[in-house]
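Colleagues,

For the teaching module next term, I've prepared a clean inverse folding example: a structure given as tokens, and then the sequence designed for it. I'd like students to try predicting residues themselves before seeing the answer, so please don't circulate the second half yet.
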């Protein structure tokens, strides 16, 4: 453990542990563990391993505070006490060296993860652009003035794409002197300042054309008579003076030529006096005319230092005032042609690279040139140092085709012939990302790379196929994400006290429930397939993951896959749920049937399924299931059927049909019909929305979740509800499976589509979540305890709290108990996993920088302090699409946890006067490290106060009778001059205690700091009043003396 700690911190020998560059580091720098260096930890190790301490027991909190403050000599005793509390999560009262190093390694691991997320680009899945070209794509560019992308193929087909990469139109570029079948387009470049494009052909011509919506490709100038075929071009213009521009050309004869324009906005070339001014007429310009200086609006610069080698790429750098060009030759590989002031001469600088290079890119801020070497190396060059490269990036196994800087991030992309894309950190000269395996498969291909940095789009072409890698949008440093993709499942492991989450990217992450720390991550568990279901075995030592690839994998907690279950029988099917029973494993989802695996058959790595004797009983796919020992199994489908099975005989014993709306009329039917298309456009996630068609009609009968009320074991005697279901219509149903009777049904979420739910093990709380990110907590302890005479209860149970922990669809809900206290885990498509207490107050988001600490004195939610919905709240629901606000008595304030809230938007409309005072802010800063008390909401989090006033009915004011006030009739009586003898100190205001209706104890109402401050202020005021009385008494005496 000590060796791992030293290895992890070897690069930060004299640096603080959590020193980062982001703004959130200010808080971390104040913490003790952030200021400790490797030398401080070595001192701590010597103390732990010394003979003075008992190695079997460790060190207590008092000893840790006393000895570490003396040995390390950094930090106070209080800070070491706080550090001890962070390490001693189990509250054992002592820690050892292993616990300390584990804590430090977790801190370092999270630091590395945060650094990766801030530095390494996050890409969306590779996208294939619909092919329109039959020949090889020669160029890709973006035309700013039209906000379109241009692609041109070797055959002359020009594609114009919108900013959203939708094809707008295609144009066929042709030359007059050459037949289309003999014509090749070699290069295309955009001229943004003059709204034109330049196209080079194998006919040694360059066409300057304007893209006109009516005429298409309208050629204005034809430059002919070039000595060699131009195969690469580059265009630059002065952003401050559009008349100044340079077009750089590279040809097959090793020539680098540049046309410098002086009046580009007026005219690129001078028209003869006898020519027509009609722009539709193409003007022919001979190259020799430009070389001889015939055109005064432009002149030519050129050199032939590449000695008849094909010039692969050219560019002009305005910051260096130099022309850059490369070839595949080992001599004069990279040439810099420096412009001389007031002269047309060029000063040459040459670089020699073994085997030559294919391409290059220049970073103006870092002043570096990167070359894509045929020798599989990417070299970094200082333009002023020719003897040696500034850096060599090695890692590619084949010739490098192209390089491209990501300027703002100071990164470099390189793409090789083996179809491997690498992202390099320029400062450390390390490869931080490798992307391979997803590109089109082809043996021989011509490829080019174009990076549109403002939009974060990387285009890579493979012959005529164009691919796109798009960066994930930067959500900002204040935005916290638990996963990179939408979260699908949550599990709680009560043995290891860990939370396990999965996402659509086939990633599984393990978190500590007590602090929210990320401890391990399993990537690509099922390749690129989504993980749609997870489960734990009875001992909670094995993890089962089910994926859309039709397989179920069994993992240990070290990331080793022991078995793979062929649930889909070699088909890619979607698995909705996994049930681990005493002898069998049940896998559900597709084909309306149950797949069985016997635990006794888990002797091989690849396991085949067994047949379910009960056959097919559902009419649609199975979405959910629940099991009640010893043998009761229920399954729910997208068609609304609930089938009750005997797990021992595998036969169906009963069918229940969910018919939402039969017993209660939804108040939002019109809203559901009107917005069904929007809701159904979202993906299934784990919300079981796959059962809805996208045609505009919604299947409201789908059963999305089933749960047994485990605490109600004797309900068969009283006839109460044992099973709870929820579905697509937002309703919740309570069933008695012995009688096959629906006892209660109520609308939990109206007008938002399908919902999901979970129930705690004590069967006291029902938690529901919807597509809008809202979560509701219901008290169902006394709900449907007995059955009526064929009557279905439509009255909802008491609603305890409604809050919005997420901004998007809630995909999974789970409950967990820590220190006899109940907590709620919720996940969403917003890539976040949030931990909340049972009162609906969030403790934090897994993955945030600051950690919470779950204490041992968290109070349960008060049962009696609830309030049913009133008629006014129902009116708000009917007249507004915004969720209602539940008013209720808040639970008692007990300092039980230290939540770190990353998203302050949830508190935007909660006013706390004490926090806005100067004394309150000082008090808060002073006690930040000791703990924070919750701010209890009187309204649902995230609902603006203005929402409540929408339900007010504003009427016209009634006429009032004329009123006569005495102070208007006799103003002298009330507004006369005050008596001189009346002194301000004689006016005594009533005390605070006299104004209260009931006596109270000030010490219990205000903090001690406020009472001390008030006492000092009162004493100071009395002293000043006494001095004032003395001075007022002396002044009249002095006047008499005078």
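(Answer key — instructors only)
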């Amino acid at each position: 453990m000590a060796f791992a700690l030293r290895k992890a911190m070897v690069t930060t020998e004299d640096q603080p542990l959590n020193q980062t560059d982001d703004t959130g580091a200010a808080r971390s720098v104040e913490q003790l563990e952030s200021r400790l260096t490797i030398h401080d930890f070595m001192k701590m190790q010597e103390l732990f391993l010394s003979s003075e301490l008992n190695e079997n027991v460790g060190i207590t909190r008092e000893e840790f505070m006393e000895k570490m403050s003396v040995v390390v000599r950094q930090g106070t005793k209080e800070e070491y006490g706080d550090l001890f509390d962070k390490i001693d999560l189990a509250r054992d009262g002592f820690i050892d060296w292993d616990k300390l190093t584990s804590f430090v390694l977790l801190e370092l691991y999270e630091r590395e993860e945060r650094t990766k997320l801030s530095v390494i680009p996050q890409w969306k899945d590779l996208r294939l652009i619909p092919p329109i070209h039959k020949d090889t794509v020669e160029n890709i560019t973006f035309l700013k003035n039209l906000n379109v992308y241009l692609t041109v193929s070797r055959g002359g087909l020009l594609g114009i794409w919108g900013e959203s990469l939708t094809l707008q139109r295609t144009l066929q570029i042709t030359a007059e002197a050459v037949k289309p079948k003999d014509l090749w387009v070699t290069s295309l470049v955009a001229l943004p300042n003059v709204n034109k494009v330049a196209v080079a052909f194998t006919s040694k011509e360059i066409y300057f054309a304007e893209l006109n919506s009516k005429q298409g490709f309208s050629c204005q100038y034809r430059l002919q008579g070039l000595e060699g075929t131009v195969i690469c071009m580059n265009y630059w213009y002065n952003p401050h003076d559009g008349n100044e521009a340079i077009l750089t050309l590279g040809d097959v004869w090793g020539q680098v030529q540049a046309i410098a324009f002086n009046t580009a906005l007026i005219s690129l070339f001078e028209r003869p006096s006898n020519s027509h001014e009609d722009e539709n007429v193409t003007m022919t310009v001979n190259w020799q005319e430009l070389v001889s200086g015939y055109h005064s609006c432009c002149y030519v610069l050129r050199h032939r230092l590449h000695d008849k080698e094909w010039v692969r790429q050219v560019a002009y750098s305005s910051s260096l005032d130099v022309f850059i060009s490369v070839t595949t030759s080992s001599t004069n590989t990279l040439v810099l042609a420096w412009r001389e002031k007031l002269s047309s001469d060029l000063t040459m600088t040459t670089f020699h690279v073994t085997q030559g290079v294919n391409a290059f890119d220049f970073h103006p801020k870092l002043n570096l040139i990167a070359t894509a070497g045929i020798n599989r190396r990417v070299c970094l060059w200082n333009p002023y140092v020719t003897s040696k490269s500034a850096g060599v990036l090695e890692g590619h196994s084949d010739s490098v085709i192209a390089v491209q800087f990501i300027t703002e991030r100071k990164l470099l992309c390189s793409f090789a012939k083996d179809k491997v894309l690498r992202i390099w950190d320029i400062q450390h000269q390390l490869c931080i990302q490798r992307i391979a395996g997803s590109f089109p498969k082809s043996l021989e291909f011509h490829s080019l790379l174009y990076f549109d940095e403002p939009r974060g789009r990387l285009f890579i072409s493979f012959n005529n196929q164009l691919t796109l890698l798009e960066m994930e949008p930067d959500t900002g440093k204040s935005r916290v994400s638990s996963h990179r993709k939408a979260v699908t499942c949550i599990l709680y492991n009560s043995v290891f006290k860990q939370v396990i989450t999965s996402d659509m990217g086939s990633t599984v992450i393990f978190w500590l429930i007590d602090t929210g720390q990320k401890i391990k991550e399993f990537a690509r568990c099922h390749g690129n397939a989504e993980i749609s279901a997870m489960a734990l075995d009875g001992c909670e030592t094995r993890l089962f993951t089910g994926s859309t690839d039709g397989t179920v994998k069994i993992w240990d907690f070290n990331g080793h896959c022991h078995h793979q279950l062929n649930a889909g029988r070699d088909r890619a099917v979607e698995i909705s749920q996994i049930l681990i029973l005493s002898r069998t494993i049940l896998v559900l989802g597709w084909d309306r049937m149950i797949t069985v695996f016997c635990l006794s058959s888990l002797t091989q790595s690849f396991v085949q399924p067994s047949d379910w004797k009960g056959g097919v009983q559902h009419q649609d796919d199975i979405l959910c299931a629940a099991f009640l020992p010893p043998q009761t199994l229920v399954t729910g489908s997208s068609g609304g059927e609930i089938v009750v099975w005997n797990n021992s005989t595998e036969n169906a014993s009963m069918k229940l049909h969910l018919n939402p709306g039969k017993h209660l009329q939804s108040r939002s039917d019109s809203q559901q019909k009107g917005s069904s298309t929007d809701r159904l456009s979202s993906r299934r996630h784990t919300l079981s929305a796959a059962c809805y068609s996208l045609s505009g009609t919604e299947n409201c009968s789908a059963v999305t979740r089933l749960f047994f009320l485990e605490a109600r074991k004797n309900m068969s005697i009283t006839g109460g509800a044992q099973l709870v279901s929820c579905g697509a219509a937002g309703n919740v149903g309570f069933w008695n499976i012995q009688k096959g009777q629906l006892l209660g049904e109520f609308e939990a979420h109206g007008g938002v589509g399908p919902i999901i739910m979970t129930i705690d093990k004590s069967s006291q709380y029902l938690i529901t979540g919807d597509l809008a990110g809202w979560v509701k907590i219901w008290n169902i302890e006394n709900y449907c305890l007995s059955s009526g005479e064929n009557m279905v209860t439509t009255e909802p149970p008491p609603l305890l709290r409604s809050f919005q922990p997420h901004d998007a669809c809630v995909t999974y809900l789970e409950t967990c108990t820590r220190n006899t206290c109940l907590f709620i885990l919720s996940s969403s498509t917003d890539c976040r996993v949030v931990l909340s207490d049972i009162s609906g107050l969030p403790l934090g988001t897994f993955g945030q920088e600051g950690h919470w600490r779950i204490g041992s004195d968290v109070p349960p939610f008060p049962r009696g302090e609830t309030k049913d919905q009133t008629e006014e709240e129902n009116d708000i629901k009917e007249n507004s699409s915004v969720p209602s606000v539940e008013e209720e008595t808040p639970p008692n304030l007990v300092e039980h946890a230290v939540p770190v809230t990353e998203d302050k938007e949830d508190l935007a409309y909660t006013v706390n006067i004490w926090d806005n005072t100067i004394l309150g802010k000082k008090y808060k800063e002073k006690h930040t490290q000791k703990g924070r008390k919750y701010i209890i909401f009187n309204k649902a989090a995230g609902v603006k106060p203005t929402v409540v006033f929408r339900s007010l009915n504003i009427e016209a004011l009634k006429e009032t009778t004329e009123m006569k006030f005495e102070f208007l009739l006799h103003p002298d009586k009330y507004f006369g001059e005050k008596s001189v003898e009346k002194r301000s100190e004689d006016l005594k205001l009533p005390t605070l205690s006299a104004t209260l209706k009931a006596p109270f104890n000030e010490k219990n109402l205000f903090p001690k700091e406020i009472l001390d401050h008030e006492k000092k202020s009162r004493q100071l005021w009395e002293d000043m009043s006494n001095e004032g009385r003395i001075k007022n008494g002396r002044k009249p005496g002095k006047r008499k003396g005078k």
